[in-house]
Amino acid sequence: MLLAIKRSWWLVSSSLLIGGLSVGCAGGGSAVSRSHGAVHGHASSAEGGVFVSAEQDAAQGFDGHVQGVADSSDVVHGAASAAHDAASSQSDAADARPTDAAARADDSAAADADAGNVVRPSWLIDDGAAVFFVGNSFFDAQNLDLPDWVAAVGQAVSPKITIKTGSHIVAGNNPLQWFFQQQQSQDAIASKKYKVFILQGEEFEPVDHKQQFQDAVRAYYHAVTASGGSVMLFMTWDFKWDEGQPAPTFLDQLSSAYDEIGKELHIPVIPVGLIYDDVNNALPPGEVRYFLNGGSLHQTEKGTAVNAYATFSMLTGINPKGASFAATGNTNSPTLLQYLSDKSWARVAPRLHN
């Protein structure tokens, strides 16, 4: 029922975009628009932990997730350590190597860096860079503000990396083209102060209106790159009511729509929806499928932790290693943060090479 209502409203909202004019506003007139550009700094000590139940490991496929990730191999062309990595001795390659998926990605990246075989991705940000977020409540539902959380992760890793943020977040079902037409996005692009623009389509748009979504991404891409910036896409997730769908599933279509336009424009896609799916298929103790979005639409604080770790990693090339951080609404345990961080890094790390 909820799905039908959401998609019906989407059809009404998108139909109001006529002749390039932004007329519609979703959310029954209650949509809230925000823009902020402060430096979000939240210092916190890095803590870590792992789920150690052998029975749960065997039943749920933990595979000994994160057994102490080692040394500088945790940074993939990281902004904070790129120069150091380039100058490090070949002996680094002989360090002990963990066996989990995330660590293997780290090892490959470190070996490539040592051998001088890897070109640093152009989108990676340096300390003090500014990032602009464009999207709906999938970025800030329940006062869980993703820009704040990403900046907080930066203050929790060592060495710290300061991330300045701005945003154009409007709750509701406006398509991405609507955001592009608004003054907030246009002003942010014209300011040339933001290194990266992170774009999130309305949750059903990439599936129900794929061409319109991809055209909007192209519009942002051409405008942002003309102003010297980069574009990054934030892939959303599927929902409990999508379980049991025949292939191609909603998530299949969603991820394809994001990755297809990402490949066309050579821009990175933060694979959050795929990370949610990975977690659903290897649940931590005491959790049920779709706990990251509470079995409904929006991310919970646990889901927001995934969103923050994945976004931070794609922006910086740094493995946060489950760093505990202080952000409004974050009461996640160090053990759960470690697990969610590892799941995020395992998906992000390979994309840093592509």
List keywords for this structure.
354 residues, single chain, six-stranded mixed beta sheet, disordered N terminus, globular
Overview of the molecule:
With 354 residues, the chain is an alpha/beta fold. 42% of the residues lie in helices and 7% in strands. It is built from 13 helices and six strands. A six-stranded mixed sheet has the order 1-3-2-4-5-6, with helices on both faces. The protein is globular and about 50 Å long. Residues 1-6 and 11-117 have low confidence and may be disordered.
What's the structural blueprint in terms of helices and strands?
Blueprint: H1 2-15, E1 33-34, H2 54-60, H3 82-87, H4 101-115, E2 130-135, H5 146-156, E3 164-170, H6 176-181, H7 183-191, E4 196-199, H8 205-208, H9 210-226, E5 230-234, H10 250-265, E6 269-270, H11 272-280, H12 301-316, H13 334-351
Helix pairs in contact: 4-13, 5-12, 9-10, 11-13, 12-13
Assembly classification: single chain
Arrangement of strands in the largest sheet? 1-3-2-4-5-6
Number of helices: 13
SSE order, one letter for each helix or strand: HEHHHEHEHHEHHEHEHHH
Question: What is the strand tally?
Answer: 6
Q: How many strands, which pairing sense, and closed or not: the largest β-sheet?
A: 6 strands, mixed
Radius of gyration: 20 Å
State which percent range the strand residues make up: 5-15%
Residue ranges: pLDDT <50 for 5 or more in a row?
1-6, 11-117
Backbone shape? globular
Helix proportion range:
40-55%
Distance between the termini: 39 Å
